[in-house]
Amino acid sequence: MPPSRRPVGNEPKRQHVYPDTAGGLIPIPRGVLYRYPGGLIPIPKGYDSEDRTRKGNSVGTVNLVESTFNETVSGNDIVLIDFWAEWCGPCRMFGPVYEKVSEDYPDVVFAKVDTEDQQNIAASFGISSIPTLMAIRDKVVLYAEAGAIPEAALRDLVSKVTEVDMDDVRAQIEKQQAEAGSGDTQ
Question: Which of 19, 30, 70, 125 is the most buried (most CB within 10 A)?
């Protein structure tokens, strides 16, 4: 018998966020790139970096662990992250598609987080369904959604993430912060 699920509509309200320079989280406006049904997306703090990132390489995907997470996200312009597990059938079907597409975009880091081995990272992002694909550009989460997507949709996502005007995104964030700070409730 499948586990019981909460009825749709009783989910807590979730929002996009990105880390500010002080390490806090700042909501970003919805609709910048794709809809996002997920939760708060903190860039986990405190991850030491000692291993490699993929900047400038075309080595396919890289496995992220706590010691490499922060360096990888901070040291690269665009990072796609596939949250997966070995026992997950849809994850195993999506893996080869993700690997294939990664070979065509050497300037984008295609990373993988094994949610069984890296439970702290998965918990930091509130990952509750896998596979979950996340796109981060300049430390701003632009996309995060559960479910495997076909190759054409993944290529389209990479193109759209690459084309996003990050100056416009930051301007929208600043505007939203200014409105929230002024106390307007209109």
Answer: 125
> Angle at Cα 11 formed by Cα 2 and Cα 126, nearest 5°?
80
pTM of the model: 0.67
Residues labelled catalytic: 88, 91
Q: Interhelix angle for 89-102 vs 151-163, to 10°?
A: 50
- Please give the Cα distance from 83 to 34 (Å, whole number): 18
Write the CA distances from 42 to 80, 88, 131, integer angstroms. Answer: 15, 25, 18
pLDDT per residue over 65-114, tens digit each?
999 998 999 899 999 999 999 999 999 999 999 999 999 999 999 999 99
For the purposes of burial, counting CB atoms within 10 Å of the CB of 125, is it exposed (0-12), middle (13-18) or buried (19 or more)? Answer: buried
> Could you tell me whether strands 78-84 and 109-114 are parallel, antiparallel, or unpaired per DSSP bridges?
parallel
Residue type, 54: R
Instruction: For residue 163, give both structure tokens.
Output: 């084309």
